[in-house]
Structure formats: C-alpha cells, structure tokens
Amino acid sequence: MADFVDRVTVHVKGGDGGNGSAGIRREKYKPLAGPNGGNGGDGGSVIFVADENANSLLDYRFIPHRTADSGTMGLGDTKDGSKGKDLILPVPVGTMIFTAKGAKGQTKRPGELLADLRHVGDRFVAAAGGAGGLGNAALANRTRRAPGFALLGEPGEERDVVLELKSIADVALVGFPSAGKSSLVAAMSAAKPKIADYPFTTLVPNLGVVMAGDYRYTIADVPGLIPGASEGKGLGLEFLRHIERTEIIVHVIDCATLEPDRDPVSDYHALEHELAQYADKLELPVGAIPIPDRPRIIVLNKVDVPEAKELADFVRPEFEKMGLRVFEVSTASHAGLKELGYALGDLVTQMRKEVARREQEQEDERVVIKPLERKGRRRPAAAAEADFKVERETNRNGDVWYTVTGTKPERWVVQTNFDNDEAVGYLADRLAKLGVEDELRRQGAHAGDEVRIGRGDRAVAFDWDPTIAAGAEMLDGSQLGSRGKDLRLEANDPRAQRRTNAERRREYHEMMDARAAVREAMMAERKAGHWADPSVDDDRHDRESLFGRGEAGDDQEQDSEEAGE
C-alpha cells in the first residue's frame, strides 16, 4: 500500500484520422473510368473505464503519456482505411476526471470536472480520435464528377487531464493518530494494513471488505486527523476527500491515550469541527448525503485496558445524550466487534436505499432540452452566423489581419491539402458558401489582406483573394463552372447530350413563336389578295396549274416571232 497513488496528471491523445485517396479507376478500353479513391480510417479514442480490479493510479504516474492508434489511409478501388483501435484505460471505481490547469512545465491542478466514474463500467472518452478524410469517390457528385483531390484526416484530440481517486466505501473510520483504526480494519476484514505504535503509521487510505452474516460492505481507514487538517495540517487534507462518498462516519476514539489535554468527548468535537470545515468546500455527487447529515457511530477502542474500560463507561452516557450509538470494542481481544459489524451492516443497508432514492429524485428533476426538428427546411448559408466568427485584429506596429474562428472553418483547413490547387479552390468554395467572404467584405477586408483561420499552432494564414472562389481546372482553356469536371468524361456521357428543362422550354417557345409568325404572314398575304380560289384559272400561262391552259404570254409571243424570222 506504500505505492498508493490517488492523484495523477495524464497526457492523452486520440489517434489521427487517415487521409483519403484520390485514385482514378482504369479498365480495358476505359483509361479514365472515374474516381475510386477510398476514405481514410478514423483514429482511435482514449477511453477511461471504471474497473473493479483497479485500486490505484500508480501505473499512470510511471507512464503518463497515452496515445491511441491512428487510422490508415484509404486506397484505390474504393477501399476504405482501417479504423484505429481505441485505447481502454482502466481506473479504480470512484475516479474523477478533471481538466488540467497550470502553466506549461508546472504541476497541474484540477480544473473543470469532466466525468465522475462512480459505478463499475462507467466510461469517459478523454480524447476523441480524428475523423478520416474523404476520398475523391465520396466527393464526386452530379456536378463534380472527377475530383482530382481528397481530404486529409483530422488530428486526434490532445490534452492533459487530472485523475483523482475518491474511494468508494460504505463506512469511513476517522480518528486521531494511533486511535486503532488500522487495527479495527484488520480485525473486521481480511485487509492487512501496516500497524505500529507511533503516530501517522497509515500514510494512505486502507480499504477492507466486511462480511457480517448476510451483510457485505466496505470500510475505509482514513489517515489520522488532527486539529487544522481541513487547512492542510498533517495528512488530513490530502486524504479527507476519501470520505466524501461514504455513507456512515465512525469515530474511533482511543480510550487508553496518555496524552495530556485529551479525552474522548473533546476528541469527538475536534474531529467534527474539522469535518464541518471540510464539508463547506465540497461539491457532492448526485445522490450523496451531505457530511453533516450522515449518521455517526462512536467506537470506544482499547477497552481491554482496565483504565480504558473505566473511561469508556464514564463517557458513554455523554455520547448517548447526543443521540449517538456507542460501541465498546477491543481489537486485541475482539470484544464487541461482532455487535459492531452487524449494526454497521444494518445501517449501511438503510443508507444505500436512501442514496438510491436521492439519486432517482435528482435524475427526475433534471431538465432535458432537445432542439426542435424542422422537417423539409434547410438553413441557408447566409444564416449560419453561429458557425463561424470573424474578428479584425491589429498589433502595435499597425499591422491588420482578420481572424476566422469556428468549428467548420477550422476543420476544413485541417482537411485541406495545400499542395493541390483544386483542393485549395474547394476550400475557398466551402468558405464562400458558409458566408465567410461576405463577412470579410462587411468588415472592410480587401483583396491581399491577411486572413488567419484558427488560433494557436494549427492556424493557417494566407492573403485573401476572392477570385479563387471560381473553378480551379482549365482543361479546355476556359474556367469550368464547377470544380472536378473532366471533358474526357463528359464527351462520352449520354447525359451530357440531354437537354435540360430550361433548354426544352426555350426551344418550345421558339417553335411556338415561329408558328405564330407564319400564321401572321399568311394572313397578311391573304388580305393582300395573294391568295385566290383554286377553281378559277387566274394564271392561264401556268402550264403546271390544274386549270391552266398554258397560253403564251406577251414575252413568249415575241420570242416565237423572232424565231420565225
């Protein structure tokens, strides 16, 4: 037990996501059959799990850095990468996980509470793995049929956490140094704590499981308390947190002490004062009973000594006047231990029911708020103001830049391969659709101004160029309307020759306008007399006419006369 560790700082990192693949499928007679790059695998997560077989945080002091496996890269033929394996870290039941506060290189202290693993099997994801990048097969759609890029995998979450163990025990034994707490644990259970005749023999909490008939419960021996323990004196403040989750407090009082100015009643009041001082600093878990409201049991120890037996008989009525149950025991002769064991077992059963009732009441009082579902409606990109934030910043030299922060922009920057012009253009399209460029213009940004996306080590800075929002490929000498098109694919695509609804509508209107023009022209000719009754031979010179006689006209008569001459 000398190696007992109940507080440690651990650096955890989730696995990185694998990169997507930008493969092109090639078959016989089809050298360019479309994209077939697979997605990258997700990275594994670092997960703490409450394990009943773990009893200390010692392993994390020796190996404080824990990293999960990363996902693998996607491959061609739409083969997705494998997911990284989660890293499962067992911790004792009663472990609380906090954020780590403190400057780099200094001892970390607990910050915000992240998780409270109070039951066997409770889990907490301390560092989530990064998402794998999409391959170009997943990025392809009707308008972007041949993406020449893929997304990169996201890095796993990385941070420091503080693990703090608060023992899960039903009964807490408190008392002055050398009051016999460790001896009582050894006599009532199978635990073998260190026992000696000098103060502060117990340097770490000792746990023991007591079997009394059908009762089974756990007792915890808290290292000796002294006046001022709640302020950090002695060992009390370091280990007082181990009684926060107990249901019953047992005062073990030494009736055979030879120290001056010590008596059982004053010892009891001194310890109660320290407990009250410490209780004001606590944030109790769900269902926990406040320390002042927990039942107390008085154990007058070492009654095998004649003087101690006389003192126990003398002070017992005073404790009973306070409404406290008193037991006279001897860890040497085991006198009174059986009665104490059964009494504690019955009281533990009652308190467990009370704690369960309190937990249920507090769970019922919790208010769960769920967002309203809006079916059939999509939020436009211009209304997504909560997804990002643009700030105009300056330094002492007068340099101005714009910082863009937000979950989506920062994720997109991490996923972008800046060695690929098409991938950069795709990022620009996404930012423009989100409304980042409109917000930059609103705040006075001009082309060439510095823009930074994100903060810290992962920030990306570039000169803003709004014109990059257009297509990146220029296969036929002109910019394409959508990124990821390939003329070689569209040339043999029957869908490329299919008219759109707009084209069909335009051709229909052109046809109807032409018909109307013909009808107007014919009506004008009819009114002008260009049309006649077909039964009337109004052109006798027309030999092709049904009624024409083919008579020669003036020109024909003149031609015939000249031919006769």
TrEMBL record:
Keywords: Cytoplasm, GTP-binding, Hydrolase, Magnesium, Metal-binding, Nucleotide-binding. Residues 483-507, 537-546 have a biased composition (Basic and acidic residues). Residues 169-349 form the OBG-type G domain. Residues 476-507, 525-565 are annotated as: Disordered. NCBIfam families: Obg_CgtA, Obg_CgtA_exten, PRK12296.1, PRK12297.1, PRK12299.1. An essential GTPase which binds GTP, GDP and possibly (p)ppGpp with moderate affinity, with high nucleotide exchange rates and a fairly low GTP hydrolysis rate. Plays a role in control of the cell cycle, stress response, ribosome biogenesis and in those bacteria that undergo differentiation, in morphogenesis control. This is GTPase Obg. It comes from Bifidobacterium thermophilum RBL67.
